[in-house]
Design a protein that fits this description.
The complex is a heterodimer of chains A (about 250) and B (about 375). Chain A is α/β, with parallel strands linked by helices and about 250 residues long. Chain A has one domain: P-loop containing nucleotide triphosphate hydrolases (Rossmann fold). Chain A is built from nine helices and ten strands. In chain A, helix 3 crosses helix 4 and helix 5 runs parallel beside helix 6. Chain A is globular. With about 375 residues, chain B is α/β, with parallel strands linked by helices. In chain B, strand 1, helix 3 and strand 2 form a beta-alpha-beta unit. Chain B has two domains: about 240 residues, no CATH class; about 100 residues, abc type-2 transporter like domain (abc type-2 transporter like fold, 3-Layer(aba) Sandwich). Classes of the chains: A alpha/beta (about 250), B alpha/beta (about 375). The interface between A and B is medium-sized, with 35 and 24 residues.
Chain lengths: ~250, ~375
Amino acid sequence: METKTVISTENLTKRFGDFTAVNEITFDVKSGEIFGFLGANGAGKTTAMRMLCGLSNPTSGKANIAGFDVYRQTEKIKRNIGYMSQKFSLYEDLTILENIRFYGGIYGMDRKSIKAKSVELVEQLGLKEEATKLVRSLPLGWKQKLAFSVAIFHEPKIVFLDEPTGGVDPVTRRQFWDLIYAAAERGITVFVTTHYMDEAEYCNRISMMVDGYIKALDSPANLKKQFGASNMDEVFYQLARGAKRNL
Amino acid sequence: MKQFIAFVKKEFYHVFRDRKTLLLLFGMPISQIVLFGFALTNEIKNSKIVVCDYANDVATRRIIDKMEVSANFEIERILMSHQQIEEVFREGKIKLVVVFPANFNNSLAHLNKAQVQIIADATDPNTAGTLTNYASSIILSYQAELQGLQKIPYQIEIDIRMIYNPELKGATNFVPGVMALVLFLISVLMTSVSIVREKENGTMEVLLVSPFKTILVVISKAVPYFFLSLINLAMILLLSVYLLNLPIKGSVLLLFAESSLLIITALSLGLLISNSTSSQRTAMIIALLGMMLPTILLSGFMFPIENMPLALQVISNIVPAKWYYIIVKSIMIKGLGFSAIWKETLILVGMALFLLVVSIKKFKVRLV
């Protein structure tokens, strides 16, 4: 079975003055794939991701997201992607339902399906009792699961997750990944940046960014073989050791 | 449109969930009106005075009666000797003493001339000045009464008319001032904080990634505050009409239209501030400190602009509240129509457009 390519970049570059944040990165992501985007702080992950989301214009190179060009068709791209930011991105002074409905609303979903789907979603998450409580009162792990569910509420083709599990305990992180797997099974492509190497193991393929370059790109198993490492931590250290930008 | 409604709805949730801010929003105009209306007034009412009456005749009793019925004075005591006067002032409660010499009526009737002494406590020169004016005008009015009976061949009558505000009410001055201050400050403050809050919370990024148009983010942020400011305006007007007895002479509709213009100007300025800052605290400091003083000092509401050095007079032209203050005074107090204020209106429209365009431009720049 031939799988479709949903993200493809070719020599994608972003410069801020003299500083090249992202240097000619080229990669493809297939539909339904969980693609891990790894790298030390300052390696250029977030900048690369912002270009793919249409938040930032590339300096040069090509990129095609969900079949649309990042230069000319950002509005169409936006309609087809979901995004969950590094910072927790729900409104604390709105209830769970109000948050879900708000995001459904700004993605232009019609009222009926918002209503039906939001009820379904809180049931799925086991938050039926809390649905009319303010998000402020939820524990962090729940907030993050909710934020993810909201990011894919409008059934995007691709969801971009920027360090989604920061500050969360391992059990909740595991549960969070269950949600990611469920989304991938539904055909949503997951593009995730992370610092946690155990999470890297959960991805289908990962890319390692060092100083704006993609230094390695393969499945976790192949990467370990390639670097003769027993786990992803070692792979990461071997690659990141050569980094010139201060960590 | 559906997206827009969803967004505006969310903004209203924010406003109504934040009880403290809401309290500030509606508490500020009420407290300002009450403060300015009753505490910070230049009018002096029921000031206690003492009369020292050596004459005790028809004329002096008539003048004392007139003082007694005036709203400005309340006669505390009538003294019979000069020695007590200094004592009275030392006690501090009495600000003014009126002394009638003996034979006041006699000399008035036969010499056509009489003297009266007014002694005021000038530790507060403004109060002293105002009180002596009140007192001499009462005495003059008695003189006018007398002249009505007699015929004097030559007489120059001075006819002073305080137009638009014959009772010299302080309210005519400060109600438009408070309107300008409250509407402007609240609108600037609220909007500037609300956009920066999205940035701080990280929700702005999510909004930018969504297909929701950025310009609509800016506009829908301003919508709730626009309506709240109109409610505020209605409240100020109701208070001024019913509590301070200051009627609106001109068209209420025009007043609301012009106020909407000021609110839009202020909201745009607020948006500009929030687009140029990255923390709620900075935005608030700029909005409060940067806007409060120029608005109070340079709008002409507290201090007349005509008396300021030329540089400040020029600067005052960029203060939107100044133009609004002129507009409100023209409509509310003079009862003028649009033809009298089109110039000021045009200036405000220009300011609003300029600020709105710049703030939207600035908002877009941040995306690249």
